[in-house]
Amino acid sequence: MSSSRLLVSALLAALVAPGALAAAPPRRPRVDREAMREAIDAAATDDGHYASSASYTNFLESRLRHHAGDHRGSVDALRLALATDDGNPLLLTRLGEEYARLGDLSRAERELRKAVLRAPTYYPAHVLLGRVLMESKRFTRSRLHLRRAMTLKPREPEAYLVMAQLHMELGAPDEAVKVVEALAQALPGEASGYQRLGLALAARGDTARAERMLTEAAVRAPGDVEVLTTLAQLYEDTGRPALAEETLARALQRDPDSREVLLAAGRAALKADSVVRARAYFDRLLSLSSEPEIPVRVAFSYLAAREPSAAAEVLESARRGDPREPRLAYYAGLVHERMRRFSEAAVAFEGVPQESDVFADARVRRARSLSLVGEHSRALTLYRAALQDAPEDLDLRAQFARALERGGTPVRAEAVLREALEEGPSAALYDALAAMLHRQGRGDEALRLLRDAVSRAPRDEELLYVLGAAHERQGDVRGALARMRAVLAVSPDHAAALNFLGYLLAQAGQNLDEAERRVRRALELRPETGAYLDSLGWVYFRRGDYARAVEALERASALSPDEPVILEHLGDAYQRAARVDEAAAAWRRALEVLTLDPESAEPPEQRAALERKLKALPTRAPDR
What we know:
The protein has 624 residues and is mostly helical. Helices cover 75% and strands 0% of the residues. The longest helix is centred in the last third of the chain and has 17 residues, at 580-596.
């Protein structure tokens, strides 16, 4: 490999990603002998001659400082080198690089321009100047220098790679593809262009082009694990989990101990409905490491695939193997909590020691779990201890009040919330108090309370939202719609209000075009939110587009497993799509969740409604 190519490779290794030029310099560590050897080796590959031994000595010093992360010190050393070797293009290019790493693009450009003026055929300077100009959004001049570099060395890939990125920055992916194909013609067998462009397209969600580029990269570099894993992710995202698993298996042939690939392969196998193969991948992964994060990630993979028993088994096994690791107890509690197994969750959270950094959260979660299973005295003791440590925590006060209400002392619960509101009014506390009053049959009083609060802060978007939710609880859809519109008048991009408004319109069967527009905007602001996808699915359902309703609601259920409202809606959509068995399964699962967690019913009579739907399903004749 030519010395100039080695230089460019070093320059561009960290600079090829967008925004890398403006990265802040890290704190300078102590320089050791290994760093010195690396600097000397790098210096030996840089072409060019030095006018004096002083220039070369300062250049070596600059490399030492560069590798230590001291880019300011490297600039100083390069300035000293140039003092006795004025105009050396290599030194000027290195100086431009250091300024770029410091985020000073104007000085970087100035030094690189000196380099190309002094040595018009110096390839590294043209490439890096093209990169700096691109980062400065001066695309026309950037293109000139990159084309010059490609003319100087048509078989060197770096200029092509930067040029492809330039076209991506300009929103011209087809032109980027042409550049990569030109590199493939100039350098047959070269895979880096297809790889980098494929990864960039995948990151931008351009899956069709990304798949084409990455497939070609995999042909040219069949052992590239990064290419294969990204390609597998594309297959998974486009509903081809079996192909994703097959591609990951190829990556594992190259790197059988890759933890990320094993995890991804297990997840793909679960999506392909093969728990047996998933377990094989996960067991291999768990055997490679004792780090607590690994069983946690495996457990949550099982949980996302609705295999809660396997998730709990993984974490409990890890806890037995390392009972002193607090994070395992904490995450085991989270899994049980997600499964609505609140007794088991409380036991797991109890295993988190007081000195752990997750103890405070574990204590509160344990208190809530105990409260939900009727262990009121123990729950309240834990809440009081938590409040002593964090008396300013408003959410904690609201939880304490709810636990008091569950324990049969609603008067005391109401007093706690009113005392907290006197100390510091907040929308969250008002919401907790209004919901409590509604549960006690005092909905009109709740509305008066909130209207009074809004009159004192008429542009408080969160209070307006809470008031709208209270109107909806009371069955006043018109009032709820008016309040959600008031929220959006103050804050047009309030995602929760956009979603609420869209859902209310869908429920009422009104203005479904507006409903879809509102919900889609909420999803733009907070993508991959299960509740918002549920609303979108419900818009489709109300339109009679049951196929699209099923698709959206399945995605919602995947993101928010075991949410009774989403499961009921999914069952409704399955029924209308003539998928009766799946409808029954979704409704039964919703009933199972409500049995474990009655408070999750929405509305309160949801359980009875689900039972009626199941009874109304036609019964099948027994097989003869």
